[in-house]
Structure formats: structure tokens, C-alpha cells
Design brief:
With 106 residues, this protein is mostly helical. The chain is built from three helices and two strands; from the N terminus they run E-E-H-H-H. It has a domain of 58 residues. The protein is elongated.
């Protein structure tokens, strides 16, 4: 099976956009963030994006809107990649445990 090559800012898992590829071992922590307005990025998430991009608050506020939006998008995508990496580790552990269980009865 030949997997599609991702574009410059696209992330794929098993040839599918990572946003549409589900995880089997995900847990919903039921965490929500407060927002000033319904369509705004939560302040907590914006601050996390700022910190991860190594900006201080003053630098962040002086960035153009597009740059801040890209930093938030990158932060969100990074969190999604981490979730999928953990899911892949859980899959591997499960496979190894099944193999180990089959080998005990021999």
C-alpha cells in the first residue's frame, strides 16, 4: 500500500489527514476552557501557544494576527500529533502483550 505524501503543513497518519483519523485508545478528560466570546480561541490555549512558540506576552501581542493564528494552529496540531503518537504506543503495547500471551501456552 502506497501512502500519500503530505503537503508542507499537512500531517498524515496511515495516509489520512490526522484530523480525520480517529484514535483507538483516546480518553476524554472532559476539560473545557473558558472563552471571552464563542468563536475566540480560549485565552489558556492562546497563552500555551505563545509559550510554546517562545514569545513573551508583549511580543505575542505585537505579532500580526496571521502569525498568532499560525502559532495557535501549530500548537493544536502538535497536541494532535502527541495524541496519535501515544495511541500508536498503546497499539504496540497491546500487540506485544497479545504475542506474549500466545507464547506462554507453548
Amino acid at each position: 500500500m502506497r501512502l500519500k505524501q503530505p503537503g508542507p503543513f499537512e500531517v498524515l497518519r496511515h495516509g489520512e489527514p490526522i484530523q480525520s483519523h480517529g484514535v483507538r485508545h483516546g480518553v476524554n478528560p472532559s476539560i473545557t476552557f473558558g472563552r471571552l466570546l464563542p468563536d475566540l480561541v480560549p485565552l489558556y490555549e492562546e497563552r500555551e501557544a505563545c509559550v510554546r512558540a517562545n514569545y513573551n506576552t508583549s511580543e505575542w501581542r505585537n505579532l500580526p494576527y496571521q502569525e498568532r493564528a499560525m502559532c495557535v494552529a501549530h500548537y493544536r496540531l502538535n497536541k494532535l500529533v502527541e495524541l496519535h503518537a501515544s495511541d500508536a504506543v498503546a497499539d504496540k503495547i497491546g500487540q506485544d502483550q497479545k504475542k506474549a500471551g500466545r507464547g506462554k501456552g507453548r
